[in-house]
Amino acid sequence: MKKYILAIDQGTTSTRAILISHSGEKLFHAQRPVECLYPKPGWVEQDANSIWISVVDVINELLIVSGAKMEEIAAIGITNQRETTVVWEKETGKAIHKAIVWQSKQTQEICERFGHHTEMIRQKTGLRINPYFSASKIRFILENTPKGEERMNKGELLFGTIDSWLIYKMTQGKVHATDYSNASRTLLFNIKELCWDKELLKMWNINRNMLPEVKDNNADYGEATFFPGGAHIFGVAGDQQAALFGQCCFEKGQSKNTYGTGCFMLMNTGEEPIFSRNGLLTTIAWKIGHKTTYALEGSVFIGGAVVQWLRDEMNWFKNSAQSEEYASRKRDTNGVYVVPAFVGLGTPYWDDDARGAIFGLTRGADRHNITRAALYSIAYQSTDVIKTMQEDANLDLSVLKVDGGASANEMLMQFQADILQAEVRLPSCVETTALGAGYLAGLGCGFWKDLREIEANHCCSKRYYPKMNAKEAESLYDGWKEAVKATRAYKPQK
Q: For a Cys staple, 61 with which of 30, 170, 320, 372, CB 3.0–4.6 Å?
């Protein structure tokens, strides 16, 4: 009897596996850290084989601790760190270069070659030319590997984001495929025509024969023969899209925010792509059957990282969880605003030259006020992105679904509801990324019959409603915008 869905969440710093019941409950989990390599300033790489080994390890551990057998697994779902790029030998399955991680800046020079194609790329892909995305990473690997170009043209090399790499390994080289959400993050995929774009491939000088087949997010990706037992891979999605699905944001206008080191916001915009006028990215959320669902995406560079700064550099408390208690020692910020632009400002400002600042200091302001202001900065930045989404999509937001580590901070979540003047909803299972991959897998194999059955499993643990009146919220937010304006006016000497 098929009892479980096995979901793999391969992230930047760790690989997790969870076992999900038919009721959507997380039964067991296993986790392994994944090492990042920093060969040069701004470069971030990983060993692709180490990623694969971490997946093998977490699956084996999960089966041991749960007592489950592979024969009881109805389907396997995969979600992954997006954009991270692997190029490997078709014949041997061996990576020819370290995986280049999504956050690596080592391809900046390559991106600068194509700056004059900005609008064409935006219209086809919904993205910006940036080292963040996969195309420049592929080009870097080909240019920095002996006979890379020649081997590509001979059809000896394959490219994949981490989902493709794992599928290839799990099916023992039988399947080279990806899903629509991951394909849409490569700078090579036409999100309107739903295909690898010939003009973009020519521009980046990348051969089509390297690229994986693109399949629906709940399609059958083949039997995972590396783990004998007959389980097939049925659900695949990039991590942020998987979180959107795991939060059951199935309807147009529904949105989620993941509060991690940074913050990632996605809004379901329905069956037509909306191209932002304000610096948001347009992406494919998922494709199921004949229906393609699109999303607007925005990011905050420094979310929970501002708390890490107070912990590690300022030494104000020993762990991040203490920040809430620490900030609660004062009723408010005493007029203080923290703008944590440590690595510039993301959506909607896109100001790489901005630097962090603290405003409104008086003799009465202390570290507790500043800590509270730092926590509030996460909510303010998220509000910047959400309001931009509302404007671009012409959609109102009544509920924001939240997840990620910082969503456990009740002070922050209450302030988010206050400043947004909207309900903030925290799910019972915060493993929304893995849950989304699991839901897609279960939908594909018939474990769950439809979206309604999945939604019936989705439970909420906490709801936060606005307690602050709208006028006060607006005044505080106006103060934040003035602080951002002042921050951007300062330009550090180079």
A: 30
Q: Coil, strand, or helix at residue 4?
A: strand
Q: Is the pLDDT of residue 493 over 90?
A: no
| Mutual angle of helices 410-420 and 367-393, in 10-degree steps | 40
Q: Is the dihedral of CA 399, 405, 406, 411 positive or negative?
A: positive
Same fold flag, 4-231 and 248-427+459-494: yes
Ordered by start, the domain boundaries in the chain are 4-231, 248-427+459-494
pLDDT 10s digits, 191-235: 999 999 999 999 999 999 999 999 999 999 999 999 988 899 999
pTM: 0.89
pLDDT one-digit tens code per residue, 83-132: 999 999 999 999 999 999 988 888 989 988 887 788 889 999 999 888 88
**How far is 355 from 440, CA to CA, in rounded Å?**
41
Element (H, E) at 99: strand 99-100
Q: Which CATH number is 248-427+459-494 given? A: 3.30.420.40
Specify the CATH number of the domain 4-231: 3.30.420.40
